[in-house]
Design brief:
single chain, about 80 residues, mainly alpha, about 60% helix, elongated
Length: about 80
């Protein structure tokens, strides 16, 4: 079975930026532009999901009893 290596956030973002540059250039046939746009939307979702997971992870703190708890700023 041929499995693709999962790309890092930075790799996904770099690929997304390259697609945006291609589309902004305007020298791409419509069918290719549609394919690139769909690919860009998928990459944007992957990046958004990775950011949300990272945010969830950062917003938790490890308590002394090794349990995770949501981080809250005390006023």
């Amino acid at each position: 079975m041929n499995q693709e290596k999962e790309m890092s956030f930075e790799e996904n973002l770099n690929q997304l930026e390259n697609i945006v540059k291609e589309l902004e250039n305007g020298n791409i046939p419509l069918d290719d532009a549609i394919k690139k746009f769909n690919e860009a939307m998928k990459l944007a979702k992957v990046c958004d999901d990775k950011l949300k997971k990272a945010e969830e992870s950062v917003n938790q703190i490890l308590k002394e009893d090794d349990t995770l708890q949501e981080f809250q700023v005390e006023e």
